[in-house]
Request: fold
Amino acid sequence: MQSFKKTLTGEEPKPAAKPAEVKTEKKAEPRKEEKPVANKITVGHVHMSGCTGCLVSLADNYLGLVKILDDYADLVYGLTLADVRHIPEMDVALVEGSVCIQDHESVEDIKTTRKKAKVVVAVGGCASYGNITRFARGGQVNQPQHESFLPIGNLIDVDVVIPGCAPTPQLIRNVCVMAYLLLRGTEEQKALAGKYLKPLMALAKRGTTACFCDLMNDVINQGLCMGCGSCAAACPVRAITHEFGKPQGQRDLCIKCGACYGQCPRSFYNFEVMDEFEGILELIDGAMK
Ligand code: SF4
Ligand code: SF4
Reply:
């Protein structure tokens, strides 16, 4: 029978090479890890009710995120990121979104997260103080029965708050690196990481109960207010107005939700870090190289 090649070209095909004559590329040695990875911390992303903007912000670290996952953290849970169905034990849980109290599964998930994680981090405005989900009144297309949402701090103890809607990629990255150093670093690194995280831990303690008076005492009366208006924009009951570039509160309207305090970029201003700013920057730069 005529060969397929001869049919096409009119040329006789060359005899096939014997297996011994076939040259193969020498396989490259598997790349050895330059750093031990056994000391990585385990991290999970727990997604409650929110817009996923915080996860996008985490991803916006691009190669920085790859670096964190290569050297510092194993991702052990994440609805869209890891093929794991049940919340496992982990060192750090990054929780995004608030909790719908009509959804019993979500309520159970946040309680399980608290039991399974050594450190619970509320990432972004919704997890920290409810943010836009406070305005939900039900009727959403897919889940019309979902009417009421609470920040996670109303249901469980929270260790660290990363404020913002969404928080900056750098802030999320820094907290991940600092959590690693706090859990696995040298004594000196632990001390610096503790200083970096201290105001975010303090914010976790008071985030959902702070009122306008706290903003007045800690920010405005300290001369730290820069008149950005974030507090007024965050207030769900319009208790804050701006006069002469500074916020004014109507205390009889305030429901003590903590939104203004959590959203204010100066409420977690870190005086201790100011003294050690260069050391902390070097620590983060060194970790990301
Ligand atoms: S009600 Fe408004 S002023 Fe009061 S704590 Fe909440 S955001 Fe601040
Ligand atoms: S959010 Fe903070 S810095 Fe901005 S106007 Fe309000 S108090 Fe001032």
About this structure: The radius of gyration is 26 Å. Residues 215, 219-220, 225-231, 247, 264, 266 surround iron/sulfur cluster (ligand 2) (CB under 6 Å). The chain has a mean pLDDT of 85. Residues 187-206 form the longest helix (20 residues).
